[in-house]
Amino acid sequence: MPARTLVALALTLVAGAAVGGSAATPASAVDSARFDDPQPNAYFPLVPGTVSRYRGHEDGERFRERVVVTHRTKVIQGVTTTVVRDVVRRADGSVDERTHDWYAADDAGNVWYFGERTATYDEHGDVESREGSWRAGVDGAVAGMVMPADPRPTAAYRQEYLRGEAEDQAWIVQRHVSTRVPHGRVHDAVRSLEWSRLEKDVVSEKVYGPGLGIVRERDLSGGDEVFTLVSVSRP
What we know:
This protein has helices at 3-19, 21-24, and strands at residues 51-58, 61-76, 79-90, 95-105, 111-121, 127-129, 134-135, 142-147, 156-158, 160-161, 168-181, 184-196, 199-209, 213-221, 226-233. It is mainly beta.
């Protein structure tokens, strides 16, 4: 399906979510009993010690990103989550954004997102904003699904929810994708469209590779951000 058609469909779904009450508010929190025997997810691996490096650009500025699946855990709503550290640096090496994300796979292999602690920085190293930070169970925030165990078109799901702060959603649009990134050729990938009710004009495409996670992301509408996977080192 052409990108323009996908964007149009995604914007239609966003409009529906903005109007429909059922899409705007999650039904309930996750059940911690579903995380007693977590199973791995091929498209969102959480192997401690894995380091993924990306490069990208936005608004004419170049960035480098380093994502580390740490050995640290954090218990949220009775679920032991894995702490993933994500640092984005400008071309001069200064930190643009630093985030700690909290993920957990359930017994079926679905990966859930339990929140993030994030901060953006100015060129002097001072914190500009902590907007977007949230944790499931606090102030009405609810965990969301970041990757289903068996992602298939046309699965759609909420990735995070804190009203007015974190409302990302995703839609699986294609399987068995082949793509080339600086890391190399990736086969049998999954492609999704992702958006937020808080930024209705922005639609992003993400491609997830088996055993790799995100290998490419780019804005299709409302922005020009692009990031691609450069390398992966495993423990």
